[in-house]
Amino acid sequence: MIKSLPLVIFSHQNQLFALEAGFVTGQGKTAFSATSGLLLSFSQLLIPETGSRLTPPAHWLSLAADSSCFKPWLLGIEKEAELIELPAEDIHPLPPLLFARRTFPALQAVAWYQQRLVSLIDVRVLQDLARPLLSPPVPGINQVG
Amino acid sequence: MISSQLDQLLNERAGKDQEIVDVDEPVTKLVIFRLGEQYFAFAGASIAEVLPGDEQVHYLPGMPASVEGVINVRGDIESVIRLYDLLQLEGDASKAGSETSTLLLGKGKTMRSGLRVDELLDVLDVPESQLTAPPEALPEHLKPYVASLFSFNGLAVTVLDLDAVFAAWLAGQG
Lengths: 145, 174
What we know:
The complex is a heterodimer of chains A (about 140) and B (about 170). With about 140 residues, chain A is α+β, with helices and mostly antiparallel strands. Chain A has one domain: SH3 Domains (SH3 type barrels, Roll). Chain A is about 15% helix and about 40% strand. Chain B has one domain: CATH 2.40.50.180. In chain B, the strands form 2 sheets. Chain B has a 5-stranded mixed β-sheet. The radius of gyration of chain B is 21 Å and the shape is elongated.
């Protein structure tokens, strides 16, 4: 039985989000990024209509390779992420009504961390959401949106 | 003829017994509340708990506007939704933060959720004979959810079917 879960937690628009740590392979600052991968800001995936108009991300997370994604990409976030470990009892499935009506399909569960609510993101679904934004590739441009 | 006081007493007792039978007519417990300028009720059996309106509701991103957020009820996470849009009510949902607002923890057959109401009026047993079927003239958008109507202190109260409300909300209405 799983007693705790390692998570990579980050803040976006003053809300906390977390990814399973096993899916995150690295992080860095966008200013010093030497990668040729595309950068998609988290806000573009969370609210596609308005996300690209928000502040450009200052940090990035690299995610475990998705074989169906033809091009590597980085998840842009506002602030540096942290590695934490949450006890299993602090993690809850999304209530069924909310699961059915969520507008952000990658939202998978919720958790409590330092008395704040954390939205737990399914990285596999996040990659599905990213795929249409990565295609078609535009030569010479390394940021979408 | 001298009347028997015992007969009279027994007759009176029989009358009282009859009255008691009348009181025992089937009743339905209803939780009566206000949303905007209108009055509604849910069956008491479908409301698991009444929570204070100032219970901390945590905003959850990636949800439709009718979702206020989630609450922590003794370690369990419960959603909190508003019914203004579903019931096509006029008014500002931001009134949810008013002093009289309350959270009803609705428990349907398969779903449960917190429901923000503007004011809890009463929880009482209503004789079923006082409940009337919804009229034909009921607005079309309300017909799927309305179980019956009744009068409470001169107010017209619409009794809602919680399972129908949840089903419609799940289907994307509201």
